[in-house]
Design brief:
single chain; 404 residues; Cytochrome p450; 6-stranded mixed beta sheet; 17 helices; binds 4-(1H-imidazol-1-yl)benzoic acid
């Protein structure tokens, strides 16, 4: 035996199903068990290796040369299985193909490009909060705030017409289920797949997008030769796939965190400039995007364990974001900590290109709420909705005391 083989570590095996409903609804016990079992755990049900400690998730996200996205960011391996739709030029691509679409979208969604949105979004947020307050002191914040605000703020900016916007969230829900195994959640989406895809694909066409909008700017990049005309609609599709459910459930996570921690709500009211920290801490604490896969481009050794070439690696972002080795008192939602470095937006070349949009939405909504609401608390048990990737919500009952 060679020395290298003698030193190879055989990773522990788990038959847990991370995509089981009960685990999707309450993933922390599995996360803890996986982190404690070892840096690499073999998940026998899916024939994949899992990473759940911060150090190893972080390192894998940075190492795109060994952990590729081009074979799909879900369980399905695009080298062997036909993807359910043409692969994303951003999420499901590697350099060099990834570079041009990424550069174009980064410029469209960059902080300077978003500056002009702040005032309008603050007004939309105030109006959204006012409507809620007019209706009483107890309400379901999931539809009334977490869904309502992004759907009022972002579709116009993307350039969508008025019709069919009710398809946005179901389409995203389907996209995020599709990264998981072909389980009951994917089956449940199947009847709507063709209809939702047809609507989304139609909105990606140049004629469907308002002049000057983000969508139009993506097409203008094709006019400049920064993208091909075949690529432009797919980059718009990425915005439609990624831009709605993510912020809806991210905002829901943030509202839940603040309602469940009244002391932190007071802190935010006293220092409204903490809105962005509150959002990032909520992203760390809840990890709205729970998991993504990569594929090994070679036999890759992680902490002594060999992950065979061509196999999938499941990265538990939510587990890394609560790794006690990286975070002090990780289960605590705490506005006095510095949450930067969390992997809730990923890390490395695929790190969320929409994160500035998400933060601006959160800042607008939280600021409007903090100005008008003195006290915030849960008025009942929040309900989650299982999704193979997104930590999703369906009901978030809140009780508030408005500012006198
Ligand atoms: C979490 C891109 C990004 C964004 C796509 C696509 C879909 C989802 C996401 C995941 N995503 N934040 O279709 O290009």
């Amino acid at each position: 035996m060679t020395e290298a083989l003698e030193r190879a570590v055989v990773p522990p095996v788990s038959d847990a199903d991370p995509f089981d409903h009960d685990i999707l609804l309450d993933p922390e016990p599995l996360h803890q068990a996986l982190r404690e079992a070892g840096p690499v755990v073999y998940l026998s049900r899916y024939d994949v290796h899992a990473l759940s400690r911060y150090e190893h998730v972080h390192a894998a996200l940075l190492d795109w040369q060994h952990f590729e996205s081009g074979a799909g960011a879900g369980l399905s391996n695009f080298r062997h299985e036909k993807p359910w739709r043409p692969p994303s030029l951003l999420l499901e691509a590697d350099p060099p193909l990834h570079d041009a679409p990424r550069r174009v979208l980064r410029e469209v969604l960059a902080p300077p490009a978003l500056r002009g949105l702040r005032e309008g979004w603050s007004a939309v947020a105030e109006e959204t909060v006012d409507r809620v307050l007019a209706a009483g002191t107890e309400f379901d914040a999931f539809p009334a705030l977490a869904e309502a605000f992004p759907l009022r703020a972002f579709p116009d900016v993307v350039g969508l017409g008025p019709d069919g916007r009710e398809n946005l969230l179901p389409y995203g829900n389907m996209v995020f289920n599709a990264f998981g195994p072909r389980n009951d959640l994917v089956e449940a989406d199947a009847p709507r797949l063709a209809g939702l895809s047809a609507w989304v694909n139609a909105q990606c066409q140049r004629e469907a997008l308002r002049e000057g909008s983000f969508g139009a700017q993506i097409w203008a990049a094709a006019d400049r030769g920064d993208l091909t005309y075949e690529q432009a609609p797919l980059v718009v599709r990425s915005v439609l796939s990624a831009g709605f459910d993510t912020t809806v459930h991210g905002l829901a996570a943030c509202l839940y965190a603040l309602a469940a921690h009244p002391v932190e709500w007071q802190r935010l009211r006293e220092r409204p400039e903490l809105a962005r920290v509150a959002f990032d801490e909520a992203i760390r604490w809840q990890s709205p995007v729970q998991t993504f896969f990569r594929t090994a481009t070679a036999d890759v050794t992680v902490a002594g364990a060999v992950i065979p070439k061509g196999t999938k690696i499941l990265m538990f972002l939510g587990a890394a974001n609560r790794d006690p080795v990286r975070w002090h008192d990780p289960d605590r939602f705490d506005l006095t900590r510095d949450p930067s470095g969390h992997v809730g937006f990923g890390m490395g070349i695929h790190q969320c290109v929409g994160q500035h949009v998400a933060r601006l939405e959160a800042e607008a909504l939280l600021s409007a709420l903090a100005r008008r609401v003195e006290h915030l608390e849960l008025a009942g048990t929040p309900r989650r909705h299982p999704n193979n990737t997104l930590r999703s919500w369906t009901c978030l009952p809140l009780r508030i005391r408005p500012v006198a």
